[in-house]
Amino acid sequence: MDCPYCKTKMAAAATECPLCRVTFPRASALLGAVPRLTTGVSDEGGLMSLTDANRVRGAIRALKGKFPN
What we know:
Helix content: 25-40%
Order of helices and strands: HH
Distance between the termini: 26 Å
Low-confidence stretches: none
Structural class: mainly alpha
Oligomer: single chain
């Protein structure tokens, strides 16, 4: 696992980074909350055409059909 702040390698069970001493609560305060992800297509920049977005939605449906939760 890598430290979320300085990217130093650290053990999975470590409570703080051995180099920068950041803890996970401190990392959240420094870097902000982890973004919440939603399913589907998000095109905040408006770069995709409606046809392309629908094509991606179809591919997502096909994948969900093959690999259900």
